[in-house]
Design a protein that fits this description.
The protein is built from 11 helices and 7 strands. By secondary structure, the protein is an alpha+beta fold. The chain has a 7-stranded mixed β-sheet, sandwiched between helices.
Length: 258
């Protein structure tokens, strides 16, 4: 036992910092896989496989060569059976794993989000529908999200049009988008304290300026009176932009959008 502990200590002391990162990444992936299959039939067979591996380790530790050889062969068969029997469940797990929001964020799948925003703003501009859409970046907007109605839905032009429909009870507030999803609607934003802004800017523009002064968020403003789209970033408004310009400006901020 003492020899085993000395080997463990020597192994740990010889590890590099990237070895610890390697272990943490493997642990995270295994945890995510477990969370995905925990409510499927595959979890029962996985439990059996874990038990076999445990006894393989125990037999190796105790020096039981014959039992270790048998269990090692059995574990290989068990893995093949696991893949064959639970192929549908594993396929579904892999699909869900690929659709995980964390991995979408890692691979920065923002193109669809921007297209939905472009489509929504162009339709609202034509139909003279006002809107205020805030995209969270590095600064957490939880305090502003809490002022509205929680939604947590994929961002789509249809949903945005429904929220900002003049007959909707949420149309007067702002929509806040976090990690590509609509976190909340009907949110209350702080108004800018500037007095030297153009007088034709209404409450939506003042609110967009206010949130851009207090945070690093990007805010899209659709004006029903002027039938125009503007952007508020870092306390400044870029007025009267078209859909293509909106996509170009947003794409510049891809690395910073959460």
């Amino acid at each position: 036992m003492g020899e085993f502990l000395r080997n463990v200590i020597n192994t740990v002391s010889g590890m590099r910092w990237n070895d610890f990162i390697d272990i943490l990444l493997v642990a995270f992936i295994l945890y995510q896989l477990f969370m995905l299959i925990k409510e499927t039939r595959a979890i029962q067979m996985l439990n059996g496989l874990i038990i076999i591996f445990f006894f393989v380790f125990l037999s190796n530790f105790l020096g039981l060569a014959t039992i270790s050889w048998i269990l090692t062969g059995l574990s290989a068969i068990w893995i093949i059976a696991f893949v064959i029997v639970f192929q549908p469940e594993l396929r579904r797990v892999l699909v869900e794993f690929g659709q995980n929001r964390l991995f979408k964020f890692i691979f920065k799948e923002h193109a669809q989000l921007y297209r939905e925003l472009k489509n929504a703003t162009e339709i609202m501009k034509k139909k003279k529908i006002g809107a205020l859409i805030v995209l969270e970046r590095d600064v957490n907007l939880k305090s502003f999200i809490d002022t509205g109605v929680k939604i947590d839905a994929e961002t789509s032009s249809d949903l945005l049009l429904a929220i900002f429909n003049p007959k909707s009870p949420l149309h007067d507030g702002a929509v806040i988008i976090r990690e590509g999803r609509i976190a909340a609607a009907g949110c209350i934003l702080p108004l800018t304290q500037k007095e030297d802004i153009d007088k034709f800017y209404g409450m939506r523009h003042r609110a967009a300026l206010g949130i851009s002064e207090e945070t690093d968020a990007i805010t899209i403003i659709v004006s029903e009176e002027r039938r125009s789209v503007s952007l508020a970033i870092s306390g400044k408004i870029t007025p009267d932009i078209d859909g293509d310009t909106l996509l170009e400006i947003l794409s510049v901020y891809v690395p910073k959008i959460r």
